[in-house]
Amino acid sequence: MRMRHAILAAVLTCVVALSGKAREAEADTLPGMAGHGWPNHFDTCFGSSWAMMQNNCGVTRLLIIPVQARYWGYGSVLARAAGNGAGGMTNCQGISTWASASGQIADSFTQIVSTSTSQTTQVLSLGGLSVFPGGVAHFECFVAPTGGRVFAVDFE
User: Fold this and answer.
1) Cα 36 to the chain's mean position, in Å?
2) Is 19 a domain residue?
3) What is the domain range of residue 151?
4) What does the chain look like in DSSP terms, one character per residue?
5) Could you tell me if residue 76 is inside a domain?
6) I want to staple 57 with a disulfide (CB 3.0 to 4.6 A). Which of 45, 64, 75, 155 is the partner?
7) Number of compact structural domains in the chain
């Protein structure tokens, strides 16, 4: 009987230890095309191809990429984006919110990070983002005019 309890305790210890490691290894990825224009959801300036969203107009446009959180927060948020190749940069920021009696309140913000002007895909390290499980967050990217792109947002 004692041996069974010892084995059960060892198995449970391993399950608990490994479940924490599995969480750390998981990452969520949202494609740029999961986003929409703001304030107009159906902003015709954005064109998508596979996962990427590209600004086809001659002015900077705001792309919003919403997400529902699975965890208490994310220690690392990355955006993959590009400038327009002609002097325009794309910048992104993550924002989490929660609902209160007075409405939706912005709770946590990542830093705002910009690409260079190059059309080459760049990885922007936005930092961490606090959010409640099941809560909402979104990523705001001001996409460079005439060719700026957002490929995806990764968070873990």
Assistant:
1) 14
2) no
3) 27-155
4) -HHHHHHHHHHHHHHHHHHHHHHHH--EEEEGGG-EEES-TT-TTEEEETTEEEE-SSS-EEEEEEEE-SSSEEEEEEEEEE--SSS---EEEEEEEEEETTEEEEEEEPPPEE--S-SS-EEEEEEEEE--TT-EEEEEEEEPTTT-EEEEEEE-
5) yes
6) 45
7) 1
- H-helix or E-strand containing 12? helix 2-25
Distance CA 96, CA 71 (A): 12
In a domain, 90, yes or no: yes
Instruction: Give the pairing type, strands 73-82 and 91-100.
Output: unpaired
pLDDT in tens, 42-80: 899 999 888 899 999 999 999 999 988 888 888 899 999
Assess contact for 90 and 63: CB atoms under 8 A: no
